[in-house]
Amino acid sequence: MARVIEAPAGPAFFPARKVTFERLRRFKWPAVRLLSVLLVLGLWEVFAQSGQVSRFLLPTFSSVLERLADNAMSGILFENTAFTIYRALAGFAIAAVLGVAIGLGMHASRIVHWFLDPIISVIFPMPKIAFLPIFVLWLGVFDASKIFMVVVDAILPVIAATLVGIRGVDRQLIWSARNMGASERRILWDVILPAAFPAIMTGLQVALPIAIVVEIATEMLTGGRGLGGAMLESSRNADSPETFAGIVAVAVVGFVLVKGAAMLRRRLLRWHAEGQA
Q1: 229 lies in some domain
Q2: Which of 161, 217, 220, 266 is within CB 3.0–4.6 Å of 228 for a Cys-Cys bond?
Q3: What is the per-residue pLDDT across 100-118, written as a single tens digit (0 to 9) for each?
Q4: At 264, which CATH number?
Q5: How far apart are CA 242 and CA 68, in angstroms?
Q6: How far is C-alpha 77 from the geometric centre of its chain's CA atoms?
C-alpha cells in the first residue's frame, strides 16, 4: 500500500514567503533606483562626449568628477559643504522649535490664532526670497541674514503641520484624560503632542529640503563661502566643470540629509502604525 505524506498546511509557509519577499523588495528597489541614477549619468557622459554640444555648455561627467576630486583633495569642497550644511541646519532647527511653539500657541489661544493666522495666510504663498534684500540691509551679508532667510521660509510648513496634527487628535482621548483628572499640561505632553507627532514630523520633513534650497539660493545671491557661493563664483569665471561640480555636490548633500530625516522618522515612529508597516 502506497504511503501518503501530507504536505504541511499552506499558512505555515506564508511567513517564510513573506520574509523572502521583504528581503527581495528591500534589496531590489534601492538597486533599481541607483540604476536609474547611473543611467542618467551615463547618458550625460555619452552625450557630452559625442560632440553634439559644446563642453562649455555641458562638460563631461568624468571631468566634473575630476574637479570634485581636486576640490576634495584641496579641502575647499568640505569647507563649502560645511558652511552650507551649518547654515541650513541652524535655520532649520530654529524654524522647527519656533514653528512647533507657534503652532501650539495658536491652538491654545484664540487671540494668538486671531493675530497670526492672517499674517501667515498672506506670507505663505509669497516668495520669501523677496525679503532677502531687507534681511541683508538689517543683518549684513554674513551668516545671520542667510540663517534668518532659512528660518522665514522653513517655519511655515512646521506651523501648518503642527496645527493640522493637533486638530486631528481624537477628542475622546482628551476628554478621557480630563475625566481622569489630568492637568492641561499633562494632557499637552502626554496626549496631544504624542498624537500630533507624526504630522509634526511630516512638517519637519517638508521644511528640511526647503531649508537646503533656500540656503543655496541665498548663497548664490549674496556670495561668500558655501556651495551656492562657490557655484556663483565659478559661473562668473565661466568655469563650467566647477559649476556642474557644485550642482552634483548640492544633489548629494540634499539626498543624504533628506534620507537621514526619513530614517530618523522611522526610528522615532516605531510605536506608531506607520513605523510598523
Answers
A1: yes
A2: 220
A3: 999 999 988 899 999 999 9
A4: 1.10.3720.10
A5: 8
A6: 21
Residue 34 covered by a domain = no
> Per mean pLDDT, which range of 129-133, 175-179, 268-272 is the poorest?
268-272
Q: In the chain, how many domains are there?
A: 1
Q: Is residue 41 part of a domain?
A: no
DSSP labels, 234-260: HHHTT-HHHHHHHHHHHHHHHHHHHHH
**How far is 176 from 83, CA to CA, in rounded Å?**
49
In a domain, 122, yes or no: yes
Q: How far apart are CA 224 and CA 141, in angstroms?
A: 8
- 140: pLDDT strictly greater than 50: yes
Q: Residues 16-61: pLDDT tens digits?
A: 555 555 555 555 566 677 888 889 899 999 999 888 888 889 999 9
Which three three-digit cell numbers place residue 56? 562649455
Task: Express the helix, strand and coil content of the chain in percent, nearest 5 each.
Answer: 80, 0, 20
> What is the percent of the chain with per-residue pLDDT over 70, rounded to a whole number?
86
Answering whether pTM is above 0.90, one says no
Q: Which range marks the domain in which residue 165 is found?
A: 75-276
Q: Residue 197: how many CA atoms within 13 Å on its side-chain side?
A: 18
- Number of helical (H) and strand (E) elements in the chain, helices listed first: 11, 0
